[in-house]
Amino acid sequence: MKSALLALTAFVLMGAGTYAAPKSAGRTFSGEIMDSTCANMGNHDAGYKMSSTHTPKDCTLACVKSGSKFVLYNSATKTAYQLDNQNKPKEFAGQKVKVIGTYNTGTKTIHVEKIEAGS
Prior knowledge:
It is a single chain. This protein is globular. The protein has helices at about 1-20, 35-40, 45-50, 55-65, and strands at about 25-35, 70-75, 80-85, 95-105, 110-115. It has a five-stranded mixed barrel with strand order 1-2-3-5-4. Helix content is about 35%, strand content about 30%. It contains four helices and five strands, in the order H-E-H-H-H-E-E-E-E.
């Protein structure tokens, strides 16, 4: 009986600790959804020529189809952030967005929680 009571108490305390734990507060990152190749160059100029496209969206999608990865590129800081989710960015290819997520400094990757249109 005593061990059952201890187990029940431990279970309740673990549950309360989990419930009380704060949710991860995602940070907001701003920039353009680009492909990693063009982001490394800082623009789509070479990508337009290589992919025979004329818009950021078409260039990004063509480069990703050829093996590049979706990234978030901040032109103000000239920083490209890797994105752990390669499905969510597709609908925002070539657009300015806000990415909400957590940044892993070790892998230099944003864990994407949400992407929304930016300004």
